[in-house]
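Please, structure for the following, as tokens.
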Amino acid sequence: MRQHAFKVLLFVVGLLAFALFVFNSREANSSTINNNNPPPNNPSNQHVNIVEHNVERNVTVSTQPTPQIPHAYRTYKTNKELCDKKLQEIENSDRSQYIFEFSKELDMLLTYIRCGVPFAIIRAGDGEYALTEGKPWSKGPDNVDFNNDHWGWKGGDGKLVSQLRLALGENSPNFYIALPCEDWADAVNHFFAKLVKQPTRYISYATVFINRNYQTFKKFLLDELIPGNMESSNIALIINEHAKVSSLTWAKDVFLLPNDGMDWFEIEGDRTVKYFTTIARNTNGTTFLFSGGPMAKVLVWHMWNTNKNNQYIDLGSASDEIVKGMQTRPFTDPNSMFGKHFCQRYRRDDDNRLQLKRG
């Protein structure tokens, strides 16, 4: 009897060991890109979805180029003549001398998206100004960015700070650096003097998607991008982990970035860049929409320099109402001070200073 019981026990132990082996094998093979997951003992492992997460809990990285901008739901898709006309109007304008009027600047960027023009845009505001000057960015309750996005920085140099400076210094065609309005000329002049190399042609407004332009931009998202479905969409979201993922089925892929991207990047920056540049390298004709603080700007820069056949757009808080399902900034109210605010036309002059367009 004892011998029989012992054999049964061995059989049960064997079954459990086999089940554990199968489970671990499946776990080991679940990553789309091998060796890019955060190490199991990393204290930030709760952010593992930074490298693999979409609405179906897996990431599909195609090894075959996709057709150039196959947006079945885009208004300009079947009208090449209209696209050519709009793009020619931009080319024939004075845009290379001065940034467009606020609403027209947004229209230019929306034309690029609709017509499948590969481009990238990163926005620099007060947080980026502080970081590139080596100053701390408060994690305290009075910081609106912390309250909404929960990132901060101790000050001084760091891996992400160094790469942010390089991103702002990018000078390739179709890479737009979006800077503050003329009412913060000191910051614009700082960026021109110390970091930004792009001519006026590739300078834009950091608030181009928000403030007085927000209602127009929101309508574009709701009417033109979101109506796509998983089969026809080639929109990929690289956004903050507070996103309401269940409502984002219109996106092809959703990648979540950790709240405190500054500290995360110090530990996992190299792997994170490798992961996203691999995605960019294996994808053509995709519109990547970003909302992830300073880390988003660095990822845009790396992905653009990996493959310039996509669109990489740093939306920031302009996407919050859609991807988080909540209003996080006062510009969402068109009657507020921010909802009415707009930038005046300016350019980069020969002395690397902001010059307003007169008349």
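The beta strands are 119-123, 175-179, 203-205, 235-240, 253-257, 287-291, 311-314, 346-348, 354-356. The two ends are 102 Å apart (CA to CA).
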